[in-house]
């Protein structure tokens, strides 16, 4: 085993791990180090981003490479997912400090937790062995439980952390039990070995293992019927933490599920395809209908997340390179829209600095914060998939992949159900532009918030279509990497 080559490949995780350990010591020994630690954490994430980009476009890794005896794989698929994870984490760190500083609750441990979470997510998307997958998943999950309950004096935050921990532990147990069954009936924990062992068919026990694994992973992406934790945790967790949960971990969980389904269970597509189709359609419908009666903005965005997971799963259900490419394109656009939406929500504060959290709070916002209101309008229309905004392209490529695979009924139902979701996105516009003003909103926001919101607005605007040739080509390369059977 060439350890030098292995360490070269896992350099992004090593950078983030070293930075997290060093910054943890700084947080323990230096008083009021939160600002310094945050800046250093952003720098470390940028370093990991640049190294991942280097690996992505390094011709010597065109056909991927394995590290540590086949426990970890560096390929285009994992690199694309990690780029999205790191950039989303950077954006979340930029918009975080002001929220906690108003409550005098920002501590240097927060960016350290995000770094450790990013390490776990990087391991998840590059894992090609069940043991590596579980270690990365638990590293990410444990830090997420702490983040959800970061406001120790806030009852809602503590409740969100406890709910997330209990349900997350249950999902981890289900996943681990499924892994044990898969290992027992395949005789290996490596994805390639599992694929070969299951190539001739699945026994009843192996099928149960596949179902349990998919159920555990469905919890992580908050797909129906394992979505019950999402609205409560999103509402109760601090808003910057909710923004993080809705973006970076979502990418990691979806990428982990896609790699598991295509590489490990790819020889038995029929065994899991119907499960994914049900989860996709159920997530679209439940996400759309569940949001209609909500008044809290974060709960609405939680159901929006469930709804969007449904569209992503349509691409996975297709189980072709075109479908996986569509999943990656949709994920990239979804991350931008979600980060932009939560950046706008974080900018909505009253004169006393308290967050505006309900539709009643943002009534008439266009008369007080017109730029923010127009930004929210742009992002909501994009999430609804209304052309010519870039969000339409994400839905288009997913449905196109389904039609090309002769899943016309699936595409038709998905398109019809997406119309339902447009209702609650339009509600944002109606309340902000046509209702009488509610609470008086603060008129100033930090430059970092404006930068994140501005970048997201430009990308989701029609200008985003300029990225489609490059984004499509990279997504095609990444999807093709999963279908290379060594």
From TrEMBL:
Membrane topology label: Multi-pass membrane protein
Enzyme Commission number: 7.1.1.-
Compartment list: Cell membrane; Endomembrane system; Membrane
Gene Ontology molecular function, alphabetical: NADH dehydrogenase (quinone) (non-electrogenic) activity
Keyword terms, alphabetized: Cell membrane, Membrane, NAD, Oxidoreductase, Quinone, Translocase, Transmembrane, Transmembrane helix, Transport, Ubiquinone
The organism's place on the tree of life at top rank: Bacteria
Pfam families: Proton_antipo_M
Keyword Chloroplast: no
Transmembrane stretches, start-end: 6-29, 36-57, 77-100, 112-137, 164-185, 197-221, 274-294, 300-320, 327-348, 371-393, 405-427, 447-467
Catalysed reaction equations from the record: a quinone + NADH + 5 H(+)(in) = a quinol + NAD(+) + 4 H(+)(out)
All residue ranges annotated as the NADH:quinone oxidoreductase/Mrp antiporter transmembrane domain in the record: 127-421
Description of how the protein assembles with itself and partners: NDH-1 is composed of 14 different subunits. Subunits NuoA, H, J, K, L, M, N constitute the membrane sector of the complex.
Family: Belongs to the complex I subunit 2 family.
Function (record text): NDH-1 shuttles electrons from NADH, via FMN and iron-sulfur (Fe-S) centers, to quinones in the respiratory chain. The immediate electron acceptor for the enzyme in this species is believed to be ubiquinone. Couples the redox reaction to proton translocation (for every two electrons transferred, four hydrogen ions are translocated across the cytoplasmic membrane), and thus conserves the redox energy in a proton gradient.
Xref: NCBIfam families: NDH_I_N, PRK05777.1-3
HAMAP family: NDH1_NuoN_1 (MF_00445)
Name recorded for this polypeptide: NADH-quinone oxidoreductase subunit N
The organism of origin for this protein: Qipengyuania benthica
Gene behind the chain: nuoN
């Amino acid at each position: 085993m060439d350890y030098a080559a292995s360490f070269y490949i896992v350099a992004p995780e090593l950078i983030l791990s070293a930075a997290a350990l060093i910054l943890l010591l700084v947080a323990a020994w230096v008083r009021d180090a939160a600002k310094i630690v945050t800046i250093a954490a952003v720098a470390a994430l940028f370093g990991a981003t640049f190294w991942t980009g280097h690996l992505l476009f390094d011709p010597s890794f065109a056909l991927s490479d394995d590290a540590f005896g086949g426990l970890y794989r560096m390929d285009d698929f994992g690199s694309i997912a990690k780029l999205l994870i790191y950039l989303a984490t950077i954006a979340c760190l930029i918009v975080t400090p002001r929220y906690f500083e108003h409550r005098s609750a920002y501590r240097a441990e927060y960016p350290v937790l995000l770094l450790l979470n990013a390490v776990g997510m990087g391991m998840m998307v590059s894992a090609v062995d069940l043991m590596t997958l579980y270690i990365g998943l638990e590293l990410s999950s444990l830090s997420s439980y702490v983040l959800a309950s970061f406001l120790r004096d806030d009852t809602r935050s503590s409740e969100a952390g406890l709910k997330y921990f209990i349900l997350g532990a249950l999902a981890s147990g289900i996943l681990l039990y499924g892994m044990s069954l898969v290992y027992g009936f395949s005789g290996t924990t490596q994805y390639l070995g599992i694929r070969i062992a299951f190539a001739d068919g699945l026994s009843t026990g192996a099928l149960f293992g596949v179902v349990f694994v998919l159920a555990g992973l469905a919890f992580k992406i908050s797909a129906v019927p394992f979505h019950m934790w999402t609205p409560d945790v999103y509402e109760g967790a601090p808003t910057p933490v909710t923004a993080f949960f809705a973006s970076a971990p979502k990418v990691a969980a979806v990428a982990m599920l896609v790699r598991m389904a295509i590489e490990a269970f790819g020889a038995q597509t029929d065994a899991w395809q119907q499960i994914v189709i049900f989860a996709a359609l159920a997530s679209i419908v439940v996400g759309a209908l569940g949001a209609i009666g909500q008044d809290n903005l974060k709960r609405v965005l939680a159901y929006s997340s469930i709804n969007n997971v449904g569209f992503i799963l349509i691409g996975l259900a297709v189980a072709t390179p075109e479908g996986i490419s569509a999943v990656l394109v949709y994920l990239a656009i979804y991350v931008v829209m979600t980060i932009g939406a939560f950046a706008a929500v974080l900018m909505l504060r009253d004169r006393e600095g308290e967050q505006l959290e309900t539709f009643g709070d943002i009534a008439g916002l266009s008369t007080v914060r017109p730029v923010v209101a127009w930004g929210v309008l742009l992002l909501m229309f994009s999430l609804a998939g209304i052309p010519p905004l870039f969000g339409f392209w994400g839905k288009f490529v997913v449905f196109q992949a389904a039609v090309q695979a002769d899943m016309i009924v699936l595409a038709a139902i998905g398109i019809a159900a997406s119309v339902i979701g447009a209702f609650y996105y339009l509600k944002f516009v109606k309340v902000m532009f046509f209702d009488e003003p509610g609470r008086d909103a603060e008129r100033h926001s930090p430059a970092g918030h404006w930068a994140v919101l501005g970048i997201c607005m430009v990308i989701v605007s029609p200008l985003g279509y300029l990225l489609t040739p490059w984004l499509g080509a990279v997504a095609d390369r990444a999807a093709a990497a999963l279908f290379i059977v060594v």
